[in-house]
Amino acid sequence: MKRIGIDIDGTVTSPSSILPYINREFKLNVTLDDVKEYDLLHLVDIPKEQFAEWFKGAEPEIYKRSPLAEGAKEVLKEWANSFELYFISARASHLLDLTRQWFTENELSFHHIELIGTHNKIATAKKYNVDLFLEDKHDNAVSIHEECGIPVLLFDTPYNRDPIPEGVIRIASWHEANDWIKKWK
After folding, report:
1. Where are the CATH 3.40.50.1000 domain residues in the chain?
2. Hey, is 97 helix, strand or coil?
3. What distance in Å separates the CA atoms of residue 67 and residue 5, rounded to the nearest whole number?
4. Which of 7, 37, 107, 119 shows the smallest number of beta carbons within 10 Å?
């Protein structure tokens, strides 16, 4: 059975999940279209350390309440019978129980969840021998494809529009991912 590596935040969750929290905390009115880079520091006028401290405190609530990306639940339910679903996230490992609870509450199937605490997912993708990866972070998608030699589906967002090499496939939705995977399978 083929194994799919899947990022969580911005892929399974809506890419705008964090924005209501940033807007509330920093008195902004940012939409996803305003987010032109993955690093959100450009949205706020505070030092990096201060933003990191805020995020660390807000993280559990953000992850607990993150809405699903449109179509994710239906497609993942369909895939659970045909693929091994390995969720590989940059979330810190101490958030594993909260993450599993979120998957359960949202009725999402999974075979494994790995929270690695870093955006460098190459070693984990290799460790679990994934055949395909789904990602929203541009440089992750490119490096996973190049280092692992596997196709990567990149969910299109305003913050990841840099050019992509062949082998990284830009998709607009979970339904488009499903159509692509049906042909790939």
Report:
1. 3-14+67-184
2. helix
3. 20
4. 107
